[in-house]
Amino acid sequence: MYKDLVDLIINVGFPIGACIAMAIYIKILHTAHRADIRQLNEEHTKEVNGLREALENNTLAINTLVERLTNEDK
User: Fold this and answer.
1) Nearest-angstrom CA–CA distance, 71 and 64
2) What DSSP designation does 1 have?
3) Neighbours of 8 (CB within 10 A)
Protein backbone atom coordinates (compact mmCIF):
# COMPACT_ATOMS: atom_id res chain seq x y z
CA MET A 1 0.00 0.00 0.00
CA TYR A 2 2.80 2.41 0.87
CA LYS A 3 4.57 1.58 -2.39
CA ASP A 4 1.38 2.46 -4.27
CA LEU A 5 1.15 5.76 -2.41
CA VAL A 6 4.79 6.58 -3.14
CA ASP A 7 4.32 5.68 -6.82
CA LEU A 8 1.24 7.91 -6.96
CA ILE A 9 3.12 10.86 -5.45
CA ILE A 10 6.03 10.33 -7.83
CA ASN A 11 3.76 10.10 -10.88
CA VAL A 12 1.23 12.89 -10.22
CA GLY A 13 2.87 15.06 -7.62
CA PHE A 14 2.33 15.56 -3.94
CA PRO A 15 -0.74 17.86 -4.01
CA ILE A 16 -2.77 15.57 -6.24
CA GLY A 17 -1.63 12.48 -4.36
CA ALA A 18 -2.53 14.11 -1.04
CA CYS A 19 -5.99 15.07 -2.36
CA ILE A 20 -6.61 11.50 -3.51
CA ALA A 21 -5.43 10.10 -0.17
CA MET A 22 -7.67 12.53 1.74
CA ALA A 23 -10.64 11.63 -0.45
CA ILE A 24 -10.13 7.94 0.29
CA TYR A 25 -9.78 8.69 4.00
CA ILE A 26 -12.99 10.75 4.02
CA LYS A 27 -14.84 7.97 2.18
CA ILE A 28 -13.72 5.42 4.78
CA LEU A 29 -14.77 7.70 7.65
CA HIS A 30 -18.11 8.45 6.00
CA THR A 31 -18.88 4.76 5.56
CA ALA A 32 -18.03 4.02 9.19
CA HIS A 33 -20.08 7.00 10.36
CA ARG A 34 -23.13 5.85 8.40
CA ALA A 35 -22.84 2.37 9.96
CA ASP A 36 -22.68 3.91 13.45
CA ILE A 37 -25.73 6.07 12.75
CA ARG A 38 -27.66 3.07 11.44
CA GLN A 39 -26.88 1.14 14.63
CA LEU A 40 -27.90 4.08 16.82
CA ASN A 41 -31.18 4.45 14.90
CA GLU A 42 -31.97 0.77 15.42
CA GLU A 43 -31.27 1.04 19.14
CA HIS A 44 -33.38 4.20 19.39
CA THR A 45 -36.27 2.51 17.59
CA LYS A 46 -36.17 -0.36 20.10
CA GLU A 47 -36.15 2.10 23.02
CA VAL A 48 -39.06 4.08 21.61
CA ASN A 49 -41.05 0.89 21.02
CA GLY A 50 -40.47 -0.10 24.65
CA LEU A 51 -41.61 3.33 25.84
CA ARG A 52 -44.68 3.14 23.59
CA GLU A 53 -45.63 -0.23 25.07
CA ALA A 54 -45.19 1.05 28.62
CA LEU A 55 -47.28 4.14 27.84
CA GLU A 56 -50.05 2.01 26.33
CA ASN A 57 -50.05 -0.23 29.42
CA ASN A 58 -50.23 2.82 31.69
CA THR A 59 -53.09 4.25 29.63
CA LEU A 60 -55.03 0.99 29.97
CA ALA A 61 -54.43 0.94 33.73
CA ILE A 62 -55.59 4.55 34.13
CA ASN A 63 -58.69 3.91 32.01
CA THR A 64 -59.53 0.87 34.15
CA LEU A 65 -59.12 2.92 37.34
CA VAL A 66 -61.31 5.71 35.95
CA GLU A 67 -64.02 3.22 35.04
CA ARG A 68 -63.93 1.65 38.52
CA LEU A 69 -64.05 5.05 40.20
CA THR A 70 -66.92 6.12 37.96
CA ASN A 71 -68.86 2.93 38.75
CA GLU A 72 -68.32 3.41 42.51
CA ASP A 73 -69.72 6.94 42.36
CA LYS A 74 -72.98 5.72 40.81
Assistant:
1) 11
2) -
3) 16
